[in-house]
Structure formats: C-alpha cells, structure tokens
Write a structure and sequence with these properties.
alpha+beta, 2 helices, 2 strands
Length: 82
C-alpha cells in the first residue's frame, strides 16, 4: 500500500495574475472610453465613419495577422523540403 501524497497548501487571497488581469481590464476600459470619437476611414474606394476604437482594433488585428503569417510564408510552409 502506497502512502497518500502530501497535500499542497492552499493559497489564500489573490495572486499577482489576478491583479495583472484587473489592471489590464481597467486599462482597456480607459482606452475604449478615451477613443469613442468618430473618425473617417478611407480604404481603397470605401469611405466610412466609425469610432476610433474600432479602427484601432482592426489595425491591431491586421498587424497581428501579418506578424503571425510572415514567418510561415518565408519558410515556405510544411511542403518545403529541407
């Protein structure tokens, strides 16, 4: 018969990750509230007026997509022989 493993002590209170999540949430709320003004966006033949926060989110999302895709395109994908 094997003895039961010792129980780990339970953490009391909040850890640093909880505080970091709360701070990030507050900063996101401030960013959204400070960027609610309408801006004109021109892309090719499309002109539109949208809240600035949406323009920032679209630009950030496209930047993240380009950053994710660029190394995969450069190395030639999974079919390339090494």
């Amino acid at each position: 018969m094997t003895p039961d493993p010792p129980e780990l002590p339970k953490k009391e209170g909040r850890g640093w990750k909880s505080y970091a999540l709360i701070i990030a949430g507050v900063m996101l709320a401030i960013l959204i509230l400070q960027n609610l003004q309408e801006v004109e966006v021109k892309f090719l033949f499309i002109n539109s007026t949208i809240p600035l926060i949406f323009a920032l989110l679209i630009a950030g999302g496209l930047g993240a997509l380009i950053g994710w895709a660029t190394p995969r395109v450069r190395r030639g994908g999974p079919d390339k022989d090494n």
